[in-house]
């Protein structure tokens, strides 16, 4: 296995005051003195995407319908807008209950159902990590409690020699199911796990994972449903592991950040090396070839 890589770098930033991050898989958000832009990671480079208004951030994207799920904050709390990019209009809006305090991740499965990983908090109950699944019209919901957590869990981790704590981080959709990526913390290192959620049994089925991952530094990860393969990038090392196979590691000759995307031909990786001059930042599209 080796990497094929685009010959020409794709410009990300052309000025000193510039930052970039990935709000959802397959996209890069660039903020500079010139303004804000959201870009799709494609095989031929970055393609800018226009979203309606300010104050809305993408949470999920459904490619078949060119449909974005956008998050915003209203006077009533969190709000979700379903934005049809082809028609340039919001086709549906949902006001979430006040006890939903955070949206961790979301995705659309191939049957158009929305899976939403969110946090619920109330003064007299523990913090709850909940996975919710909608119908195709986003009106009826099934809610599944993944885990409870209170402040004592974190105090034990800090003061009792690192009692392990596992937190759901993101959700990835399959055909009509979902996979959860979690971080399992041990003192100052962690294990990244992937589970398939079984809605009938209401349980998590372990798929794959990798240990150890250093908490220090930026860690980016991606789970590809097609190959049931987990990718983890940190500093200058890319690790990939499929099911129970041995992990494969590839060390880059320079430090940087990695962003992931899915295409018909497989997983795309957009690597952005650290800028040497502090101004011009460019990245390269990479993909695995067998």
Question: How does this model look, in words?
Answer:
The chain is mainly beta. 3% of the residues lie in helices and 63% in strands. It has one helix and 25 strands. Strands 1, 2, 23, 24 and 25 form a five-stranded antiparallel β-sheet that branches. It has a four-stranded antiparallel β-sheet with strand order 3-4-5-6, with no helix packed on it. A hairpin with a 5-residue loop joins strand 11 and strand 12. The chain is globular and about 50 Å long.
Shape: globular
Our estimate of the beta-strand percent is over 45%
Determine Rg (CA atoms, Å).
19 Å
Stretches with pLDDT under 50, minimum 5 residues: none
Main sheet specs: 5 strands, antiparallel
Mean pLDDT: 88
List keywords for this structure.
290 residues; mainly beta; five-stranded antiparallel β-sheet; four-stranded antiparallel β-sheet; 1 helix; 25 strands
Question: In summary, what is this structure?
Answer:
The protein has about 290 residues and is mainly beta. The chain is about 5% helix and about 65% strand. It has one helix at about 150-160; strands spanning about 1-5, 10-15, 20, 25-30, 35-40, 45-50, 55-60, 65-75, 75-85, 90-95, 100-110, 115-120, 125-135, 140-150, 165-175, 180-185, 190-200, 205-215, 220-225, 230-235, 235-240, 250, 255-265, 265-275, 280-290.
